[in-house]
Amino acid sequence: MRINVNISQTTRRSDGFAKVTVDIADLNIQQELDITFRDLYERCSIPNAVTLDLLLVASVCYVIDKSVPRTVAFDNWTREFEVTIPVNDLDLWNNVATELAQTVSFLSGDLWQFTFIPSTIRLFIRPSQWRWRRAKYSLQSRLNAVCLFSGGLDSLIGAINLLAENDDNSLLLMGHYDSPGAKAAQERLFQSIWATYQRRAVPLHIRVSHPGAANETTLRSRSLIFLALGIYAARRFGDDIPLYAPENGLIALNIPLTPSRSGSCSTRTMHPFFLNQLRMVLEKLGINNQIKNPQEYKTKGESVIECGNFELLTSIAGDSVSCSHGTRRQNWIRRNVDHCGYCIPCIIRRAALHKAGLDNGQDYGFDICEGELSIDDPGESANDLRALIDCLSDNYGSADLARLIPQVAHIDNIDQYAQVAHRGFQEIKSLFENKGNEKLHSALNILSYD
Q: How many CB atoms lie within 10 A of CB 74?
């Protein structure tokens, strides 16, 4: 499927960003890139042309991912994209075209090819009538780190830890959103952080999407645009500014729970192989800011318990959102909550909070431990629970997981990753053992791990 990215010579948005369209001729789809660039520019200006191009490339990939339904693929999943994008430094981008394609293909589970052409149009021109807006939040000292801030529990812990571990740390918390609800969740959490660590953190919420509803909702490429925004901000403040991307080790690995999930049906948002591939691309582009995942060798439960300000975390953890099915609440028993209770992220979150003594089944649309959603329910809602039960029933030890993990991709430090995955599965098993109903106990046969 050939896709052309066009930068208008004559039309600009009100903020001075050129009108960028993604032309998917085979499907008669033309999408306009929607980015709140003024918010980004007023905080970060433009670090350099390469970083701006990186933002464009990542944004285009995200728009394509959302616009092309997987049902058009021969296997209803693996789409094939040949994308042509204008860039400033043609030689530089041609030098990373192959590695970039491999990186994005692994992330989204599709087949990507990139062709770069020279751009003759400035992507952004600040309007002459533009008046700078006064920043709502300011830092007491020079910014020394950027932390991705999705509104989830892991990123909340990551931000708190950075602030709690060193009184000299000053952070920019980078949020990406598609909907106003996601932005509001990030803002609620930030207000509590600000109340505790005033003038040591500032938020930046950026929308990157397209007008209208998405044709595809799996959104495997979202972390690419999230990381590109984080790198954009880090580059603005210096090559020595690291980007933190907090994600617990079990979710980062996202080991396929069943053979049918062996491909990218299991998300690879912060998978170590993806991050390493992206690091190589960035290095070849001359971008030297480090990407760090401080929780890669921790389970979610360990991340909660070891949080640098546990009191703050416990007071606001309920405002964080980990659910991947938050828009499907029409059939939930409790519709006034933010978590379905049955998707993999919800189950891992609940197991982590159970480990810390903070679990409450009433915080979820369905309490799976009480059987409000059963493993033998014929609907799709029980698919994740069934897959998890199947995986736990295999009673994998660390050595077994060390053999399974490379089936997704080669990574170094395999034993450490296997051990964190093993401990993560133990947390889920503990939740089911301690709170599960008789049907869950029977399905698991009260497992015991070596």
A: 8
Chain mean position to CA 319? 18
Place of tokens 């909070």: 353
What one-character DSSP code corresponds to residue 83? E
What is the reported pTM?
0.95
Strands lying side by side in the sheet with 80-87: 29-32, 18-24, 2-12, 80-87, 111-118
Whose tokens are 């690419």? That residue is 224
Q: Determine contact, residues 280/232, Cβ cutoff 8 Å.
A: no
As a whole number of Å, the end-to-end CA separation of the chain is 49
Contact 340, 328 (CB under 8 A): yes
Distance CA 124, CA 52 (A): 9
Domains assigned to the chain: 2-118 (no CATH), 145-292 (3.40.50.620), 322-444 (no CATH)
Please give the single-letter amino acid code of residue 273.
F
Does pLDDT of 279 surpass 50? yes
What average pLDDT does the segment 44-55 reach?
A: 97
Size of the chain in residues:
450
Question: What is the three-class DSSP state of 56?
Answer: helix
Q: How far apart are CA 72 and CA 80, in angstroms?
A: 10
